[in-house]
Amino acid sequence: MTKIVIVDHHVSFRRSLRLMLQEIPEEIEITEIDSSFKFIDDLNLLSPDLVLMDSRLSQRSGIETATIALSKKPTLRIILLTMFNENKYVQEAKNAGIKGLLPKPPSLLELKEAYCAVMNGGFYFPSKLK
Predict the structure, then answer these.
(1) What's the pLDDT at 86?
(2) From 31, 36, 55, 80, which residue has the greatest number of CB atoms within 10 Å?
């Protein structure tokens, strides 16, 4: 079973992402978290295989949160969801150790492609976000 954590402060977005993830033909367990602080506090307890994180969280940025999380769990796979498509931002995400970037909101196809790439040890940075 794959454990997935969605970190986003918008409940409606978390719910829609959950519905999309349920279309992936694998057994998954999904946890929703609404804040950066709660995610970092609960990281060891949650022990996720994959994290889908908003780039703009209320307490700190997604990149900052990812950096903290990866310092605690270096093998953590994180896909950042963003409305930014600037090269500088993409490079920051890569430098932080983030495995993938998705536009917000992603299409089901993009979500499936990112999931497969990252869960198989690769990366997912679509050309429109490079």
Answers:
(1) 62
(2) 80
